[in-house]
Amino acid sequence: MTDAWGSAGPTGDTHARRATGTPCWVSLMAHALAATQDFYGALFGWEFRPGPRQLGPYVRAVLDGAEVAGIGQLPPDRHLPVAWTPYFASEDVDLTAETARLCGGTIGVGPLDAAEAGRLAIGSDPSGAVFGIWQAPRHLGTAVTGVPGTPAWNELLTFETISVAKFYETVFGYEAEPAESAGSGPTRSAGFDHVTLRMDGRPVAGIHGVGHELPRDRGSHWKTYFRVEDADKALALVTRLGGQVLEPAHDGPHGRVASVADPEGALFSVIQDPH
């Protein structure tokens, strides 16, 4: 499948600051930080190093020396959903956050500085799906892509695509391409209410309208896909580590895909590139 994460290579070399709207980072807020590190470390081969603590205890996941994701700890008194959150690059996080507000979104955190690494905001779109905005003077985001253990794709699951697609088009400058002509994204399938978000013609994320199949207990939400070497082996490992398989592995146009949840219930998908 098309890599939506830019041109960083497996050596961890980073490129120039990403253009506004480009997916640049994923972060998970969990209750048990140490246990969550154990789960993802065993599943993806991640190691961890300390990160900025403006949001409390926080670590960056590292794969072969390159940073690929972040995991933070929720305060004990905050009963928030445990979920992976994608961050989209911005050249001016304050302006992007204000645009999101004017377009019907909300900003729940920030904008604030994350030490010397950059400036961030966390908000939700009009459907309630949470996303992050990242302005990077130093930390450019995910430093390695295209190999197992790295983010591959982000997809918004929502009731319908039309209104929320307009929000992301306005806030980040995407071009929204309906499913009839779109060919990117692991859940691309005829008959789906599906939109591919493109930046300069390149697919960067998807929006999937699932109607009444949207989980009532979760509502609209972003889901991150992580690359794996072998999807079936990854599912067996997820189960052995205390996670749950939500959708068995199946072959699609972009590889072998499955949906899972970690031990705290955070949803994500794994995808094995087609051979």
TrEMBL record:
Pfam families: Glyoxalase_6. Residues 22-136, 150-273 form the VOC domain. It comes from the Bacteria. This is Bleomycin resistance protein. It comes from Streptomyces mangrovisoli.
